[in-house]
């Protein structure tokens, strides 16, 4: 039978440079990083480079990457299409301090995919975009309350895990029950300014919402005169038109980010022209217009990478990728069900998959699974997260599934 302690000991012994780099980082970075999701015990793997769907650690080990930067690396690593577009940017200047035509070009590309974003504005992360979307809804409605959902994640300053988040912006939140119509109805009130929801929660456990629940929210927003916001930073890669397009539900505002910047920091919030015109000085006049600025909004690197990357995102490419993800999830679930290994189960939709653990000793199983995969050359998110990118193939997925089967057999051994 597999031993978590042995797997961890083997990891420590075979990754001395990662340990050294981590200990150095602890000297200047609390926790040794600036992105808490990378935390793992006894120390995280430290990476040096990536190509396609492979990453290489500072210890020289190559791993097949099934994290895909938590959905942001849709295009894999060092994608040649994006590299080709970027290589001449240093020659033309990249901090021009003015408007460029690429802003409108990217805006048209995004609106083509998400017609609900009639007008939009760019920023530098999904977190920032969600902050602005909610602030816009408060101004537009003149109200203060915001309906959010348990385990929802709209960035580090607006997340709602079971234990709460002391870093949240102090809005007047009402926390409803995700994908639970009857459980959410009691929270509806006429003073709600906005309803914000992920069509599938990612950080909250890769939990898809039902179409019925999202339709219920659309109807509730209409009845209350509230602004319905879909946070599609993660889910926009699950269909060419996002999950709003696949389900035929049109929100008032949409937030996108992550992969859409082609690997560079990016966020965008947009919606109905009547809402977004609050930022238009030619409509509102200089005294009433909302001011939204940011030094790196619409920076040349991000715009160029995003425009190039958009050519890789076709309906066919996303369909094939999400079908491959469905194969992985369904096959992995079949493995644990067939072997009676009910400590572990899989959820998700398309190319995004959650790995969950339950029962006595579940944490040891999670750690064992993570370090077993690393030992055999596969990397997933430590918390139990799998995501595919455009470089993954059926052959790689089959090898990954074989490794999952081996883990289950040896753990039960």
TrEMBL record:
One of its GO terms (molecular function) is pyridoxal phosphate binding. It holds the Pfam family Aminotran_3. Transmembrane segments: none annotated. InterPro entries: Aminotrans_3, PyrdxlP-dep_Trfase, PyrdxlP-dep_Trfase_major, PyrdxlP-dep_Trfase_small. The keyword S-adenosyl-L-methionine does not apply. Keywords: Pyridoxal phosphate. Its cofactor is pyridoxal 5'-phosphate. It comes from the Eukaryota. The keyword Acetylation does not apply. Belongs to the class-III pyridoxal-phosphate-dependent aminotransferase family. PANTHER family: GLUTAMATE-1-SEMIALDEHYDE 2,1-AMINOMUTASE, GLUTAMATE-1-SEMIALDEHYDE 2,1-AMINOMUTASE 1, CHLOROPLASTIC-RELATED. This is Uncharacterized protein. It comes from Arthrobotrys musiformis.
